[in-house]
């Protein structure tokens, strides 16, 4: 059990756990918790991890109240008084409800007809398949039900807690719809018994003309059905307790009826009942419209024609014109129930499927065919009312085996649910399967085939066919079945709304929330209304034979998922899967699942597809709405197993070049509030990834983990929230480390798992690298660059990240410019291609520039490059830019000098405040002078200088910043190509400054200033000058071509081997990218990432 407590790492995911009766309960007395000092060692954690003794005590008192499928009962406890519910055992609590729910309307109204139509053998197969299906499901269900305490709410709870909210919701709603339609089916059965067998005169619609009987019957069903549903809804609304009191009466009816059937069968062995059937030739006649089964009668030596004659002939005279078939064939009378000893079983073994409207005929009776042009309508034959075939019968029969969940739905009221549910359910299924299978054989052995096929018992005076077999009277069965179907209907109408309420209260399907409310005592009023409404749909369909397959679908769906749940849990060997019920195996569950699926498609493939579509939609909807329920379900386990399997399959070696894609580690900076400083970095990530590949978003907090634990959590929540907003799919990893640098190093080394490691690091350029107290100072940055190289990972540095586009922006035009200076694996080519997959960059064109030196043949280079791109299958413009060797300009020289002076100065600057001011003043003046002389006046930088002069307290960084500004003032100017000699005036300027310094020094007589003499006498380092030359030249060329590009990708030069030059390295990069809006510096990992081969 996880406690959702104050422990920092655990339970902080913000997901409310399933309320557990054992941990963190409010009633626990804090006072007497620490009485014994034996456990002093553990007392600090007592509130989150209680003592074992108190836990056991709680377990013993844990009751599962019937009312309530409320997930968190904590808030209800105060309102609810402990009710001592009389606890039920296996027999009363599980066996009888299951028996009552399984035996129902189909047994009485349709089973004889199924036997007659499909024959004993095929009916046996149908029943056996359906019973096997429910038995396998019951085994799976028992395993799930005995795995932990089953809360009230039965099957829905079992499935949702073991398969997860998505499946739980889909199955729960399927089960709900199934139960609701079952209610409709029972009501239709009730009316059929009432109007056909109890009181045919009660029909509102009478058949005006011949052949309209079916239509009239359906309309009667609709009218009566609607009335009964309103009546039943009122009964359920007024009080469920009455329904439950009547349950026993209804159950008694069912059991009596079945006993009556068996008694009748035994009686037929020695004294078959007298139910004569009238046959004309081999055609069965309906006895509703005549009484004597003969063409004419002899009385007083006088031959009189019978009623039957008048039905077939145009007058009652002996010389009247009669129906052809009537004239040619004799009328015979045979016994409808020859009895079990008569050997009629042999005739009934085989099927007799027929078209709609055909006449029910006896197979081996002699018959002379007449001319078939006469119309059959109006003649008193027994016609079939629907077309029959094997699969259709499966659909009609299946609902008679449903109802196996009845016991588990009452799980809250059982003494020992874990023992009762398996025993009761399996026993009930065995009993009912025995009853069904024996009934099939007995019906086939006792009753004449034509009566079996006669759905409404027309050949036996409109008696219920099963009733004719029963002893002592047909009325036992008629009344019994009437009450039992009534009761079943009522129970469906009480059960379904509760199920819906349970689903609604779980809150996984948001639009169902309304149905969670009810009356003060928890009766689901709104759910009842909806249920009655859906029932009404079933009643408007009006034909029992059409409603049955619909309901079969929903139940089969539900059973399929129960089997799936059991199979998945067993195969995954989830640690929590330890059912008390031991007689299950995943093969059985799997077989059950396959059987359910097969039966769905056997019944009716289009209904099956519709039912699956509904379930699929619900599943997707719940997934889309984000079911934030953590129920520790099996599907979560399945994903974990699949992930582990896939990770082990992903070989540890580097992937093939074709499969290489940037798997990013994004290094984010957080501010003091743990919010992300540069959210655009994540926008850029999602644009680069478009949801594919791996993204790890990492960040480092400085400090000790034990102290910073809550902050780390808060940071993780913030980052995850931002990832959600920016649609960045990936993982978040926050590391707490005493030193910022080490933390980044840990991330680079250890983020990811197995084959799912990052191969590219994305970070933002440290804008304020010149401020030494900034934690991401240049040292950290340069070290990170070195570390990615050591780890053989590519590095992307986004400069001016805050100018990058959001995911909502769309560039309608523009270029992505690639400056390909050195080849380091082709990252530069791949990135623009990946970026252009995203909507933001889709309209941009890709241009590739490369640099030609003096001795290169630039025309040939261009051709080669175009060929290379053609093979890479990339569309891009190609341009070769020539850079001629020329002398190093004074500007470069001065820039290098300034850079080196700055480093020296920062080292030596320990001046008092006044001198610092004057110091800066002099540098600023000098900077101004040089700017003016070159006439690059950039008002911005002068403004900054001026602002700096207004403040009193100067820090080292500000001096640095000023020098930097004076460097950046060369913003828009291309390098001036002058000879070194041109640098002389600068030197004069410098000397002038120096003299000014000396003068100041004389004024102040301070020893510190002497350091500045050296600074201003420095000669710049030769290699630095060369490097700066490259930077300045390249910057000029890039600006010339790509100043207005939407994005510029550049090769990032590596840091110097010698660590002393790190700061100068930053300056070179700064100069290289000066004046460009959005820059991505790319450093390859040294392996090929793009290939021309397929």
Automatic annotation (TrEMBL):
<keyword id="KW-0813">Transport</keyword>
<keyword id="KW-0472">Membrane</keyword>
<dbReference type="InterPro" id="IPR004842">
    <property type="entry name" value="SLC12A_fam"/>
</dbReference>
<keyword id="KW-0769">Symport</keyword>
<feature type="transmembrane region" description="Helical">
    <location>
        <begin position="426"/>
        <end position="452"/>
    </location>
</feature>
<feature type="transmembrane region" description="Helical">
    <location>
        <begin position="386"/>
        <end position="406"/>
    </location>
</feature>
<dbReference type="InterPro" id="IPR004841">
    <property type="entry name" value="AA-permease/SLC12A_dom"/>
</dbReference>
<feature type="compositionally biased region" description="Basic and acidic residues">
    <location>
        <begin position="913"/>
        <end position="929"/>
    </location>
</feature>
<feature type="domain" description="Amino acid permease/ SLC12A">
    <location>
        <begin position="387"/>
        <end position="665"/>
    </location>
</feature>
<dbReference type="GO" id="GO:0007268">
    <property type="term" value="P:chemical synaptic transmission"/>
</dbReference>
<feature type="transmembrane region" description="Helical">
    <location>
        <begin position="526"/>
        <end position="544"/>
    </location>
</feature>
<keyword id="KW-0633">Potassium transport</keyword>
<dbReference type="GO" id="GO:0006884">
    <property type="term" value="P:cell volume homeostasis"/>
</dbReference>
<keyword id="KW-0325">Glycoprotein</keyword>
<dbReference type="Pfam" id="PF00324">
    <property type="entry name" value="AA_permease"/>
</dbReference>
<feature type="region of interest" description="Disordered">
    <location>
        <begin position="1"/>
        <end position="20"/>
    </location>
</feature>
<keyword id="KW-0868">Chloride</keyword>
<feature type="transmembrane region" description="Helical">
    <location>
        <begin position="88"/>
        <end position="111"/>
    </location>
</feature>
<dbReference type="GO" id="GO:0045202">
    <property type="term" value="C:synapse"/>
</dbReference>
<feature type="transmembrane region" description="Helical">
    <location>
        <begin position="584"/>
        <end position="608"/>
    </location>
</feature>
<feature type="transmembrane region" description="Helical">
    <location>
        <begin position="472"/>
        <end position="490"/>
    </location>
</feature>
<dbReference type="GO" id="GO:0015379">
    <property type="term" value="F:potassium:chloride symporter activity"/>
</dbReference>
<dbReference type="InterPro" id="IPR018491">
    <property type="entry name" value="SLC12_C"/>
</dbReference>
<dbReference type="GO" id="GO:1990573">
    <property type="term" value="P:potassium ion import across plasma membrane"/>
</dbReference>
<keyword id="KW-0630">Potassium</keyword>
<keyword id="KW-0406">Ion transport</keyword>
<feature type="region of interest" description="Disordered">
    <location>
        <begin position="913"/>
        <end position="938"/>
    </location>
</feature>
<dbReference type="InterPro" id="IPR000076">
    <property type="entry name" value="KCL_cotranspt"/>
</dbReference>
<dbReference type="GO" id="GO:0055075">
    <property type="term" value="P:potassium ion homeostasis"/>
</dbReference>
<keyword id="KW-0812">Transmembrane</keyword>
<feature type="transmembrane region" description="Helical">
    <location>
        <begin position="123"/>
        <end position="146"/>
    </location>
</feature>
<comment type="similarity">
    <text>Belongs to the SLC12A transporter family. K/Cl co-transporter subfamily.</text>
</comment>
<feature type="transmembrane region" description="Helical">
    <location>
        <begin position="167"/>
        <end position="188"/>
    </location>
</feature>
<keyword id="KW-1133">Transmembrane helix</keyword>
<feature type="transmembrane region" description="Helical">
    <location>
        <begin position="223"/>
        <end position="240"/>
    </location>
</feature>
<feature type="domain" description="SLC12A transporter C-terminal">
    <location>
        <begin position="995"/>
        <end position="1094"/>
    </location>
</feature>
<feature type="transmembrane region" description="Helical">
    <location>
        <begin position="550"/>
        <end position="572"/>
    </location>
</feature>
<protein>
    <recommendedName>
        <fullName>Solute carrier family 12 member 7</fullName>
    </recommendedName>
</protein>
<feature type="transmembrane region" description="Helical">
    <location>
        <begin position="247"/>
        <end position="266"/>
    </location>
</feature>
<dbReference type="GO" id="GO:0005886">
    <property type="term" value="C:plasma membrane"/>
</dbReference>
<dbReference type="GO" id="GO:0055064">
    <property type="term" value="P:chloride ion homeostasis"/>
</dbReference>
<feature type="domain" description="SLC12A transporter C-terminal">
    <location>
        <begin position="795"/>
        <end position="935"/>
    </location>
</feature>
């Amino acid at each position: 059990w996880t406690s959702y407590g104050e422990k920092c790492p655990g339970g902080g995911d913000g997901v409310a756990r399933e309320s557990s009766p054992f941990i963190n309960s409010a009633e626990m007395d804090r006072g007497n918790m620490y009485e014994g000092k034996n456990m002093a060692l553990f007392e600090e954690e007592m509130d989150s991890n209680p003592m074992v003794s108190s836990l056991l005590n709680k377990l013993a008192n844990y009751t599962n109240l019937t009312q309530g499928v409320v997930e968190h009962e904590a808030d209800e406890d105060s309102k609810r008084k402990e009710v001592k519910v009389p606890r039920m055992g296996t027999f009363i609590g599980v066996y009888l409800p299951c028996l009552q729910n399984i035996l129902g309307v189909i047994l009485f109204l349709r089973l004889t007809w199924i036997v007659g139509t499909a024959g004993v053998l095929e009916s046996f197969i149908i029943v056996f398949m359906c019973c096997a299906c429910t038995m396998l499901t019951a085994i799976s269900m028992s395993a799930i039900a005995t795995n932990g305490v089953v809360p009230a709410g039965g099957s829905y709870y079992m499935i949702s807690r073991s398969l997860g909210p998505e499946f739980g919701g889909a199955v729960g709603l399927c089960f709900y719809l199934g139960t609701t339609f079952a209610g409709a089916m029972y009501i239709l059965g009730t009316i059929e018994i009432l109007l056909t067998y109890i009181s045919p005169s009660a029909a509102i619609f009478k058949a005006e003309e011949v052949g309209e009987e079916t239509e009239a019957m359906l309309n009667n069903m609709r009218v009566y059905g609607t009335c009964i549903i309103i009546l039943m809804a009122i009964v359920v609304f007024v009080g469920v307790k009455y329904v439950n009191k009547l349950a026993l009466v209804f159950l008694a009816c069912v059991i009596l009826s079945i006993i009556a059937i068996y008694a009748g069968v035994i009686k037929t062995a020695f004294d078959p009942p007298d139910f004569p059937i009238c046959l004309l030739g081999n055609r069965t006649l309906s006895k509703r419209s005549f009484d004597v089964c003969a063409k004419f009668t002899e009385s007083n030596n006088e031959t009189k024609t019978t009623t039957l004659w008048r039905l077939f002939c145009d007058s009652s005279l002996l010389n009247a014109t009669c129906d052809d078939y009537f004239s040619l064939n004799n009328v015979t009378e045979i016994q409808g129930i020859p009895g079990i000893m008569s050997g009629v079983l042999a005739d009934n073994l085989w099927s007799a499927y027929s078209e709609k409207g055909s006449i029910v005929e006896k197979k081996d009776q002699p018959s002379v065919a007449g001319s078939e042009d006469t119309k059959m309508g109006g003649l008193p034959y027994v016609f079939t009312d629907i077309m029959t075939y094997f699969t259709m019968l499966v659909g009609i029969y299946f609902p008679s085996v449903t109802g196996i969940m009845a016991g588990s739905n009452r799980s809250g009221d059982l003494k020992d649910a874990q023992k009762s549910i398996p025993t009761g359910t399996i026993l009930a299924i065995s009993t009912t399967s025995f009853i069904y299978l024996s009934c099939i054989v007995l019906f086939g052995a006792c009753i004449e085939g034509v009566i079996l096929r006669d759905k409404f018992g027309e050949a036996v005076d409109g008696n219920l066919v099963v009733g004719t077999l029963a002893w002592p009277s047909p009325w036992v069965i008629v009344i019994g079945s009437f009450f039992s179907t009534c009761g079943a209907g009522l129970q469906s109408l009480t059960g379904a709304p509760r199920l819906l309420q349970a689903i609604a209260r779980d809150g996984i399907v948001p639009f169902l929330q309304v149905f969670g409310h009810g009356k003060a005592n928890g009766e689901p009023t709104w759910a009842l209304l909806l249920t009655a409404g859906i029932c009404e749909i079933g009643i408007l369909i009006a034909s029992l034979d059409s409603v049955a397959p619909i309901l079969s679908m929903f139940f089969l769906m539900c059973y399929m998922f129960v089997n799936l749940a059991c199979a998945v849990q067993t195969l995954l060997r989830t640690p929590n899967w330890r059912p008390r019920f031991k007689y299950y195996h995943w093969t059985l569950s799997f077989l059950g699942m396959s059987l359910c699926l097969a039966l769905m498609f056997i019944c009716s493939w289009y209904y099956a597809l519709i039912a699956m579509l509904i379930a699929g939609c619900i599943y997707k909807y719940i997934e889309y709405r984000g079911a934030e329920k953590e129920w520790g379900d099996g599907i979560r386990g399945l994903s974990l197993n699949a992930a582990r399997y896939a990770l082990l399959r992903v070989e540890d070696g580097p992937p093939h070049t074709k499969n290489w894609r940037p798997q990013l580690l994004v290094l984010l900076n957080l501010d003091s509030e743990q919010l992300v400083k540069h959210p655009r970095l994540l926008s850029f990530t999602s644009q680069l990834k478009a949801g594919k590949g791996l993204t790890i978003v990492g960040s480092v907090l400085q400090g000790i983990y034990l102290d910073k634990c809550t902050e780390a959590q808060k940071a993780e929540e913030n980052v995850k929230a931002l990832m959600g907003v920016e649609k960045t799919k990936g993982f978040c990893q926050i590391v707490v480390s005493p030193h910022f640098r080490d933390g980044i190093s840990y991330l680079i080394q250890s983020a990811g798992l197995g084959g799912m490691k990052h191969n590219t690091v994305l970070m933002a350029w440290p804008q304020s690298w010149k401020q030494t107290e900034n934690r991401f100072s240049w040292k950290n940055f340069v070290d990170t660059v070195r570390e990615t190289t050591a780890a053989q990972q590519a590095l992307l540095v986004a400069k001016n990240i805050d100018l990058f586009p959001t995911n909502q922006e769309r560039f309608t035009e523009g270029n992505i410019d690639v400056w390909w200076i050195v080849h380091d694996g082709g990252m530069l080519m791949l990135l623009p291609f990946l970026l252009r997959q995203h909507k933001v960059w889709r309209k941009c064109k890709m241009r590739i520039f490369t640099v030609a030196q003096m001795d290169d043949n630039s025309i040939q280079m261009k051709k080669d490059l175009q060929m290379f791109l053609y093979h890479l299958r990339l569309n891009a413009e190609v341009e070769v830019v020539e850079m001629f060797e020329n002398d190093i300009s004074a500007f470069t020289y001065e820039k290098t000098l300034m850079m080196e002076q700055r480093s020296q100065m920062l080292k030596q600057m320990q001046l008092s405040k006044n001198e610092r001011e004057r110091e800066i003043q002099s540098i600023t003046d000098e900077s101004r002078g040089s700017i003016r002389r070159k006439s690059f006046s950039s008002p911005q930088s002068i403004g900054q200088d001026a602002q700096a002069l207004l403040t009193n307290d100067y820090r080292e960084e500000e001096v640095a910043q000023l020098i930097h500004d004076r460097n950046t003032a060369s913003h828009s100017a291309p390098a001036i190509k002058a000879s070194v000699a041109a640098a002389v005036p600068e030197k004069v300027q410098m000397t002038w400054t120096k003299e000014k310094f000396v003068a100041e020094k004389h004024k102040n007589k301070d020893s510190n200033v002497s350091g500045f003499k050296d600074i201003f006498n420095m000669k710049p380092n030769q290699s630095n000058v060369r490097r700066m030359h490259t930077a300045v030249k390249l910057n000029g060329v890039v600006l010339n071509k790509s100043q207005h590009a939407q994005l510029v990708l550049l090769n990032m030069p590596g840091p110097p081997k010698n660590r002393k030059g790190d700061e100068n390295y930053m300056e070179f990069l700064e100069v290289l990218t000066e004046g460009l809006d959005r820059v991505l510096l790319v450093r390859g990992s040294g392996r090929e990432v793009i290939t021309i081969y397929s």
